[in-house]
Amino acid sequence: VQLVESGGGLVRHGGSLTLSCALSGFTLGTYDMSWGRQAPGKGPEWVSGINRGGASKYYADSVKDRFTIFEDNARNTLYLQMNNLKPEDTAVHYCSSGLKGRGDYRGQGTQVTVSS
Residues with Cβ < 8 Å from 8, sequence gap 6 or more? Predict the structure, then answer.
């Protein structure tokens, strides 16, 4: 099983990025999935979750109305569209199995840096 994130980078305050999480070894539609992040010196933070099948989506208050989680089952890839980015979004963002990121699988993460 492998989860590989990509799409991170350096962006200005107010900018946008779309993160991808390519899955191998298991089928996306059979698992609840989530995105989390960890900023330097801070603990992990749950960001968003999507149930298997994609009918229900959940967001932390800090990202609600700015981030959108979605999946492409044909590509077996999970995404996180991030708009209106803020400096406080700076963190390593990672995908995980489980609606709250407590599943068995987690990727290494991709760095998102937002300049003020």
Answer: 17, 19, 92, 93, 110, 111, 112, 113
